[in-house]
Amino acid sequence: MTLTFNSEFYSQLLSEYQPRIIKTEDDNERFLEIVEELLSHPKLSPEENALLELLVKLIEDFEDKHYQLNSSTPHSRILHLMEAQDLTQNDLVEILGSNEVVDKVINGHLELNKKQAEALAKLFNVDASLFTIE
């Protein structure tokens, strides 16, 4: 069954959360809370997933600009998503193949291949591009 994108529902979400360019720490914190709220849902609708991707991008842009030393990377995104969903490294073994691979990915010593990025994207209900280097 293919889920279709409901523009009316997406418009309602945009109206409710009002995503915009983040200019202050308070706005960043508010959008981080919304992201965590969305990540707590067991399954996101396509519209919620689109909102999540938009918010993550806005947060990344703000944090890249204001926290140059803590720049977001694929492995830091994985760590954040794991923490938000209360997952451990063991939860990723089946997806990434072995404890050794998970450990290397978590520590930023190994980049994910396309298949691994897509598997993690499915697990976290986000776009696979979050786990690859552009």
TrEMBL record:
GO MF assignments: core promoter sequence-specific DNA binding
BP GO terms, sorted: regulation of DNA-templated transcription
InterPro entries reported in the protein's UniProt record: Antitox_HigA, Cro/C1-type_HTH, Lambda_DNA-bd_dom_sf
SUPFAM superfamilies found in the cross-reference section: lambda repressor-like DNA-binding domains
Domain HTH cro/C1-type: 78-131
Protein name from the UniProt record: Transcriptional regulator
